[in-house]
Amino acid sequence: MDRILYTAMSGAKQTMDRQAVVSNNLANASTAGFRAQLHALRAVPVQGDGLLPTRTSVMASTPGSDFSTGPVNATGRDLDVALQGNAWLAVQADGGGEAYTRRGDLQVDGDGVLNSAGRPVIGENGPILVPLGAALSMGADGTVSAIGAGEDPDALVRIGRVKLVDAGDAGLSRGEDGLFRAVNGNPLGRDENARLVSGALEGSNVSPIESMVAMIDNGRRYEMQMKVIESADQNDQRANSLLSMN
Fold this sequence. Notes:
This protein is 26% helix and 31% strand. It has 246 residues and is α+β, with helices and mostly antiparallel strands. 25% of the residues are buried.
């Protein structure tokens, strides 16, 4: 009977973990540039002294992210940028290291730092500082220009250039902060061919309908696994009662 319990118990645990992933995806269905998290399950034998190979557990398999492109919509805002192809925007993570994002709704904070979701955007010499109150524009290669930043209020002045990278064969993995980093842990070099579109924004690649269906499916699967555990317990109690009667 314990063979059923192993499978149902571990399956219920992984179902709850999968539900958390789906809930997080659904919560970010409207977050610019968000990449959906993936979660799969597989059966594995339970290892340990005295355990037979018939004892099977369920574990997460091939966790990762969906890197497909989200929908791109024109916004007309100069600091909204949509990354083209496999380009990623380099930002400074909380710990000071370099990380990558596709979120392109850029802002300028009170200190004049260009940022994405509060994280400084990395340029040629570190975070990009822009003159407060200047009108900004973004070139296709990531060049940031401003009007009203120099002595001539009508002159277009180059402020810097955001770092655009292409992970290529190196691959990216998502961190706990939601940002992506190279699998090998090393910062990626600037990709001179990477391009962006100004005045447009890439949305999340999460499908709200598919996520809702997945939530319902996970809920029913969890309920089924709980019923299996309950049935196994009831059968075990009946078996013990019969043995005690004999």
